[in-house]
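In this section we walk through a basic example: taking a raw amino acid sequence and producing a predicted 3D structure, encoded as discrete structure tokens. The instruction is simple. Fold the sequence below.
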Amino acid sequence: MTFWLNGEWRDDPVAIRIDDRGFLLGDGVFETILVRNGVPAFLDRHLERLARGLGRLALSAAPPEDLRAVIAELAARNGAEKEDASLRLTISRGPGERGLAYPKDDASNPTVLMTLTRMGAVRAQERRLIVSDHVRAVGGVAAACKTPAYLDNILALNEAVAAGADDAVMLNAAGHVACATTANVFVIAADGAVATPPVADGALPGVVRGVLLDHAGSVGVPIDARSLSVDELRGGAIFLTNSLIGLAPARLDGGRDATVNEIFNRLDACYQSALSEDLLRGAAA
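The resulting token sequence is shown next.
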């Protein structure tokens, strides 16, 4: 794999310093971005969230100014210029002395890393869900930003795998639905009402989630961001969203099938339209 690290093209297996705070402490942020035919999807939305995360961490760093060109070159170097790929853009505070205190300004040297993995065709097959015993923290930076501090999500996902499921629903301390391990959660009630957990309940402000909240009204499907119970998931048609899967149907305890739900299909078509328009703009940029 060829990757981009601090302005250099690399393909060696050893690249990150052993004193990098991202590796040692999770002191950084990242974005996972769909790249189609060398063009990043919803890049502006990803960069806005990345900037918010960098601000919360008081981390003075940024991706390269010619980011779109670098991504296109990264796709070409990894043989993904004509297919879908997953871009991981990671920024850490970089190397530092032992301890939790930030490096002094004159010693700050952030690490900016971009890797790209070919995906091939991603099928949005139905995910089987369990409810995890691992609680989603609310109010901290790890819930509001995409940081490498993913241990609760890792444990929850492997709990699901051990139970023969594909993913896990994570609840907050109040027992409200927060998210899945790497996705936002939506539910379509029997009366057609659509809801998703609010950020205040531990939901990450996902990019696809944001696209749906912004555009679903245009196809006559308003989405309510409100607290959800597990019983509401069990009684509804569930789907998950993230940047790589788009909208994927899911099922908890044999609940309703979202793939035959007319509301789900309208939302999926709405998202695909928004995605196509964004990719066209990106290709012309």
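Looking at the output, two observations stand out. The CA atoms of residues 56 and 260 lie 41 Å apart. The first helix runs from residue 21 to 25. In the next section we compare this with other chains.
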